[in-house]
């Protein structure tokens, strides 16, 4: 079974590699792709050099050369896999999308009897015969000293702190729990009926109904606990229990019963009370050699992704990982994922399900949001990474290239050793080295791996827009993909789909309150109004659920933790505003698309359509660019239609660009003048009329609208420059009537004198 799994894993890897080869075959070699992408710039540069090679030029076609250089650098950049600049991977040296990071949280306690993890308080706990050491894992700071509490000597099966951290509860045996008050040193012992039932475990709750839940083979007892540690039985849930699992993140406990432990009863102990979920049967295949397989607690994991609670269950006989989604009044099997190892575990990082194929020592990543059995990318190893920083010294390089099996900071790291315990959502407890690791996702490596196995850039952008932990990096990768699609001259429909993804994601962020539009057109991040809200949640409810809309999901309660950490998580968003799309995509490619302005206009037009559909504010610069591109390709008729049909919205900036572009076509310049007049931009309209030589019309307009902000000398200078003394006399006459006291100004005397000198026959 294990050999078959490894063969299947190799097939999966080679199938992804085959897809990569198929894609690369269409672009030939790296050099061929660069030449294909930058052929226009290369041709322009070559033509320019050839035309002046006999001359001595200082810049030697510098502009064309820089355009070619920029295109080639960009193409190489998007094609070249590169590790993160601040983190160096060690081990196999291969690309990997998941890693553990030095330094770990180390437990250097002599005579340690074991390590435990309290997920409710996020504490790493180390115990000796009479002491309890605890470290905060939320900040994951290895330099912080642990808290130390003394307890009576005795066996320790499990340890958990109360949610207010005032009481330590220690399970001593299968029938006894002891409670120790950290301040008063008071001790309390709770025992179940020996012989008739066994104590399986316990956990603290923030439900208003109870403070403590004790799980036994006969069911679950719910207790209220006061400040004096007096326990009062509130309710008993009678169920035959073989084993249970619980996570404070979901507030959900699953109780397994039956001969094969596949009958599951669930309760959620949330702030809304205790909710009993429908009983359900887990799927379990059978074979001739094992007709009645049994599910163990290690085969079942509770995970929370995109605010949804899932149960993932290993079916080793079928070599499948079954997934179940919890609703308030239903539990629905969502599908099954193939597994390739006889031993596996799971982690959740940034809403992605990481399936650790322990025998094969690789990680396969799934995005449950897309409802697909296909992994995000090919299987890749879990790597260990050294210190963060920019130290590039030979000593540092030597240290970073050590094998993970070697000693590094006194840690003998063996990937996926038997002593590893995977803790939901993203921790690994290494009992051998007495350390706690956190699993990280390398977003850039994931992007490269997905790019290698699929040419679907739209799906890649959707994947990146769902990432929160490295929001800024996700944003930069999305911008790079959008630029590359345009520079590679991908079909306009494909580019449009990509832009639609980015616009829709930003629109949701604004509506959800993650981004708030300001008066200056910029955006800022704000805390969402609903905890755990995300575009993935809303879209998932609309399209991803197979249940009726009235069926509710299990209430999601976020774990308690430092306020700063929760706020930082809520503020993270990779959404890209229209202003950013203009600055970092369209404006950055404009120079390199000089000869293909029609292509760029088609893309921008679809971008404007998408913006309009989402009712978002458009950066005026995008309109200005559109006018510039249309004028450059002499598409003046289309430019008129764009303006008349309000595809290009009227504004001062748009009108001035129409005037500038109208130097080649009087119809376009007239559009600019008409827009200035419609917007009541009197000063700009009058100045433009005078510039065109229509100073009399401008003066009449100023007289009619009673515009006094325009300098009178503007009209007089224009009339004098035309050598039409009758016009000059008329303007002097109108200004004298329009402006009280004008005949006493220096301007009047100056131009009246010039008029008399030039033509004494004209009366004023």
From TrEMBL:
This is Mic1 domain-containing protein. Residues 551-739 form the Mic1 domain. Pfam families: RMC1_C, RMC1_N. PANTHER family: COLON CANCER-ASSOCIATED PROTEIN MIC1, REGULATOR OF MON1-CCZ1 COMPLEX. Residues 391-410, 524-573 are annotated as: Disordered. The lineage of its organism: Eukaryota, Viridiplantae, Streptophyta, Embryophyta, Tracheophyta. Transmembrane segments: none annotated. Residues 115-226 form the Regulator of MON1-CCZ1 complex N-terminal domain. InterPro entries: RMC1 (IPR040371), RMC1_C (IPR009755), RMC1_N (IPR049040), WD40_repeat_dom_sf (IPR036322).
């Amino acid at each position: 079974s294990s050999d078959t799994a490894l063969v299947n894993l190799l097939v999966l890897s080679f199938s992804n590699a085959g897809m990569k080869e198929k894609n690369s075959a269409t672009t030939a070699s790296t050099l061929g792709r660069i030449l294909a992408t930058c052929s226009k710039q290369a041709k322009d540069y070559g033509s320019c050099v050839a035309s002046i090679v006999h001359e001595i030029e200082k810049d030697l076609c510098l502009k064309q050369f820089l355009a070619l250089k920029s295109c080639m650098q960009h193409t190489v950049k998007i094609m070249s896999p590169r590790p993160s600049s601040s983190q160096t991977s060690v081990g196999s040296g291969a690309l990997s999308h998941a890693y553990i990071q030095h330094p770990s949280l180390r437990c250097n306690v002599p005579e340690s009897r074991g390590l435990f993890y309290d997920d409710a308080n996020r504490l790493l706990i180390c115990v000796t015969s009479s002491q309890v050491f605890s470290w905060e894992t939320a900040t994951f700071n290895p330099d912080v000293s642990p808290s130390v509490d003394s307890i009576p000597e005795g066996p320790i099966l499990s340890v958990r702190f109360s949610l207010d951290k005032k009481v330590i509860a220690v399970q001593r045996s299968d029938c006894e729990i002891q409670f120790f008050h950290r301040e008063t040193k008071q001790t309390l012992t709770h025992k179940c009926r020996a012989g008739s039932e066994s104590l399986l475990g316990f956990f603290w709750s923030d439900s208003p109904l109870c403070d403590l839940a004790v799980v036994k083979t006969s069911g679950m007892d719910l207790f209220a606990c006061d400040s004096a540690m007096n326990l009062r039985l509130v309710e008993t849930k009678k169920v035959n229990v073989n084993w249970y699992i619980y996570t404070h993140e979901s507030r959900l406990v699953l109780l397994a019963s039956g001969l094969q432990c596949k009958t599951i009863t669930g309760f959620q102990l949330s702030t809304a009370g205790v909710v009993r979920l429908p009983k359900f049967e887990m799927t379990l295949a059978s074979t001739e050699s094992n007709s009645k397989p049994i599910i163990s607690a290690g085969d079942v994991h509770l995970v929370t992704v995109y605010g949804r609670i899932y149960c993932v269950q290993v079916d080793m006989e079928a070599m499948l990982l079954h997934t179940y989604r919890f609703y308030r009044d239903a539990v629905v099997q969502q599908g099954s994922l193939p597994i390739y190892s006889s031993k596996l575990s799971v982690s959740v990082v940034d809403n992605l399900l990481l399936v650790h194929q322990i025998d094969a020592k690789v990680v396969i990543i799934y995005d449950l949001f897309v409802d697909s059995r296909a992994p995000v990318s090919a299987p890749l190893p879990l790597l260990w990474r050294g210190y963060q920083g920019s130290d590039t010294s030979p000593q540092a390089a030597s240290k970073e290239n050590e094998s993970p099996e070697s000693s590094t900071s006194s840690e003998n790291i063996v990937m996926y050793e038997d002593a590893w315990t995977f803790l939901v959502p993203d921790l690994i407890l290494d009992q051998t080295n007495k350390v706690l690791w956190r699993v990280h996702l390398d977003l850039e490596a994931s992007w490269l791996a997905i790019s290698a196995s699929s040419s679907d850039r739209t799906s890649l952008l959707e994947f990146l827009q769902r990432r929160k932990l490295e929001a800024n990096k996700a944003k930069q990768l999305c911008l790079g993909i959008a630029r590359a699609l345009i520079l590679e001259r991908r079909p306009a429909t494909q580019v449009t789909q990509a832009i639609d993804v980015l616009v829709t994601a930003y629109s949701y962020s604004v509506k959800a309150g993650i981004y708030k539009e300001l008066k200056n057109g910029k955006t800022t991040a704000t805390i969402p109004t609903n905890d755990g809200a995300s575009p993935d949640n809303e879209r998932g409810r609309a399209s991803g659920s197979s249940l009726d809309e009235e069926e509710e999901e299990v209430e999601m309660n976020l774990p308690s933790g430092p306020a700063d950490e929760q706020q930082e998580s809520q503020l993270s968003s990779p959404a890209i505003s229209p202003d950013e799309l203009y600055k970092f995509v369209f404006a950055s490619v404009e120079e390199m698309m000089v000869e293909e302005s029609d292509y760029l206009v088609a893309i921008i037009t679809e971008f404007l359509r998408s913006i309009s559909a989402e009712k978002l504010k458009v950066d005026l610069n995008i309109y200005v660019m559109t006018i510039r591109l249309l004028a450059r390709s002499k598409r003046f008729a289309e430019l008129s239609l764009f303006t008349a049909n309000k595809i290009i919205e009227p504004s001062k900036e748009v009108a001035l660009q129409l005037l500038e572009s109208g130097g080649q076509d009087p119809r376009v310049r007239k559009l600019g003048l008409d827009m200035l007049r419609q917007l009541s931009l009197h000063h700009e309209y009058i100045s433009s009329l005078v510039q065109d030589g229509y100073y009399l019309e401008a003066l009449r307009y100023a007289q009619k609208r009673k515009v006094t902000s325009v300098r009178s000398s503007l009209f007089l200078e224009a009339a004098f420059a035309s050598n039409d003394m009758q016009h000059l006399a008329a303007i002097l006459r109108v200004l004298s009537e329009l402006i009280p006291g004008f005949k006493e100004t220096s301007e009047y005397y100056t131009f009246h004198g010039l008029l008399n000198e030039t033509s004494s026959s004209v009366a004023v």
